[in-house]
Amino acid sequence: MCGRYVSPDEAAIEREFNLVHQEWQFPASFNVAPTQQVPILREVHGERRGSMMRWGLIPFFAHGEAPKYSTINARVETVETAASYRGPWQRGQRCLQFATGFYEWHVDGDGRKAPYYIHLNDQSVFAFAALWDRSKKPDGSAIESCVHITLPANELMREIHNGGSNPHRMPAILAPEDHEVWLNGSVDEAHAVLRQYEAGLMVAYEVSTAVNSPKNNNAQLLEPVGRGTQTKIAIGE
C-alpha cells in the first residue's frame, strides 16, 4: 500500500485549492515517510483550514501513544469498523491529504523490487481521501494525526503493486468535484466518492532505488531510470 509519497509546498497547495490566509509554511518533500508531519486541509467551524499533522493515525483512545501496528493506510473495506478508524469516520473527521505523486514497488519475474513513481495527468496537486484524529497525552497536550484510505487497485496499479503483504491496492484519490462532498457530505455521500481513480489519467515509471531510504529527499528521485517509461504497457515486461 502507499507508504511513500511526494507532497507540494504551501504555495502550490494554496494556488491549486484557492486557499488564502493559511498560517503555514513548508517546502515540498520528495520522499514523505510515515510519522512525518504532512499538510492536510479540513473544515473547522465552517472554515477550511490547512494544518500539519503526523502521518500515521494515533487514535483518540491511545493517550498520545502511537500504536504498534501501522496506521498510515486505512482499508476502505474496514474503515467503518476498525477500532482505530471508526471513531473519526463516524464523527466526520475527514480531511484532504495533499500530494503531487506517490511511490509503489513492483516485483518483476526475477524477484527484483523496483520503485515506481505515479502521478496524475489531470491534477498537478491532488488529494488523498483521509481521516484525522486528536489524542491527548497524560500531560494534557494533544497530538493530531491522519491516515489516508486505500482501495482495491485499478488495472494500472494492480500491475505495479504486486508484492508485499497487501498487494494490488491503491490510495483513494479524490476527483476535484468530490472535495466538498468528502469534507462536508454525509457518511453515505463520503463513502460514495471512495472509488478507483481512472487508470488512463495516471502516469507511472520506474525510478531509482534511492527512494528506498527516507534520508534521500530531492527532485532527482523523480527522474525515470531503467526500463521504466511513462506508459503502463512497460510494467512487468
If you had to describe this structure to a student in words, what would you say it looks like?
With 237 residues, the chain is mainly beta. It is built from five helices and 13 strands. It has helices spanning 10-16, 86-90, 155-160, 179-184, 187-192; strands spanning 4-7, 29-32, 37-44, 47-55, 73-75, 94-99, 101-107, 113-120, 126-136, 142-152, 169-171, 173-174, 202-206. The strands form two sheets. It has a five-stranded antiparallel beta sheet with strand order 2-1-7-8-13. The longest helix has 7 residues, at 10-16. It is globular and about 50 Å long. Mean pLDDT is 93; it is low at 228-237.
Quaternary organization: single chain
Rg measurement, Å: 17 Å
CATH class: Alpha Beta
Label the overall shape: globular
- Mind telling me which CATH architecture this is? Alpha-Beta Complex
Number of domains: 1
State which percent range the strand residues make up. 25-35%
Low-confidence stretches: 228-237
CATH superfamily: SOS response associated peptidase-like
What strand order characterises the main sheet?
2-1-7-8-13
| Broad structural category | mainly beta
